[in-house]
Amino acid sequence: MDMTLANIDIPAIKILRLLRTLRPLRVISHNRSMKLIVSALFESVGAIANVVLVVVACWLMFGIFGMNLFAGKFYYCLKDGATDYTLLTLYTCEKAGGNWQPWYENFDNILQAILCLFCESSSESWPDVMYRAMDASAVDYGPVYES
Questions:
Q1: Are 85 and 94 within 8 A, CB to CB?
Q2: Contacts with 89 (C-beta within 8 Å, 6 or more apart), sequence order
């Protein structure tokens, strides 16, 4: 049946052909241990949601704390496509023709703070954020090495 309808260009038939991807799910109905695993997985969704809620609440608290400490302090000067660490203030950067911009992970608003904390929690870029936090000096001032 599938081969006879292969050359016909009707969108409804293409949707029906997508249902073939659900064939492996029939194994679940025939295998008792697979039924047990799938039912345990669905029963654990509520507990997983509770854990996610607690983690988001912690990120929210630490995000607010990070905003209080580091809001406006994770900026640098981008001049001629390269980072210029000699231009340490917003004024000197703009005067020299540079672009004063924040690092991708910053604590300027709560969404950015939670994104930054998520990246740190996943161990993706925590050393970069740690060194930026260590070198942060003041609002509208760039990073000062070991300040």
A1: no
A2: 140, 141, 142
Domain count, the chain: 2
Say whether 82 sits in a helix, a strand or coil.
strand
Is residue 95 domain-resident? Answer: yes
Contact yes or no for 72/108 (Cβ under 8 A): yes
Q: 90-128 burial, b if ≥16 CB within 10 A, otherwise e? A: bebbeeeebebeebebbbbeeebbbbbbebbeeeeeeee
Which residues, in sequence order, are bridge partners of residue 75?
102
Residue 145 covered by a domain: no
Whole-model pTM over 0.90:
no
Digit-coded pLDDT (tens) for 53-84: 999 999 999 999 999 999 988 888 888 877 77
Domain span including residue 22 = 11-43
